Amino acid sequence: MTLTEEMTKQFGAAALAKPMTRGEAYQLLDALKSVLLEHQARLDAMESHGVRYCGVFQKALSYRRGDVVTASSSMWTALRDTAEGEQPGKALDAWQLSAKAARPAVRVKTERQE
After folding, report:
1. What's the confidence (pLDDT) of residue 102?
2. How far apart are CA 62 and CA 54, in angstroms?
3. Burial (0-12, 13-18, 19+ Cβ within 10 Å), 33
4. What are phi and psi of 9, to 5 degrees?
5. Spatial contact of 63 and 78, defined as CB atoms under 8 Å apart
6. CA geometry: angle 28, 33, 36, nearest 5 deg
7. Report field, pTM of the whole predicted structure over 0.70
């Protein structure tokens, strides 16, 4: 919410046309303080988990903004909450390419696997 929106909500549009009283200024500061504390709590929650790697992309799952998956030998980050089936590389508004493999991974057989 912008400062103008908060002032309009608290005092009405007429209050924007005249100087504020000290009481109105304190009310506005209290309202802004609560908005800032709300945003600080959201920021703390986002920063507490860091990057969340969700493994290989699966069509049957939905992902949250900031989730990281691998698909087509590349790493993708969700730009917004996604619905089931929104695939990296196809839903361009939902995913951002974060890292692309230089070449597809090749599985090397070891003695035990032969």
Report:
1. 73
2. 11
3. exposed
4. -65, -45
5. yes
6. 125
7. no
The CA-CA-CA angle for residues 50, 54, 60, to 5°, reads 140
* Spatial separation of the C-alpha atoms in residues 51 and 100, rounded to whole Å: 18
How far apart, in whole angstroms, are the C-alpha atoms of residue 73 and residue 69?
10
pLDDT, tens digit (0-9, with 9 covering 90-100), for 1-14:
676 777 777 777 77
Q: Per-residue pLDDT tens for 26-52?
A: 887 888 898 899 989 888 877 776 678
Q: What angle do CA 54, 46, 57 make, to 5 degrees?
A: 15
Q: What angle do CA 51, 73, 61 make, to 5 degrees?
A: 55
pLDDT single digits (tens) 76-109: 999 999 999 999 989 989 999 988 877 666 677 7
For 95, other C-beta atoms within 10 Å of its C-beta total 24
List Cα–Cα distances, 9 to 2, 16, 37, in angstroms.
Answer: 11, 11, 18
Residues 100 and 74 sit within 8 Å (Cβ to Cβ): yes
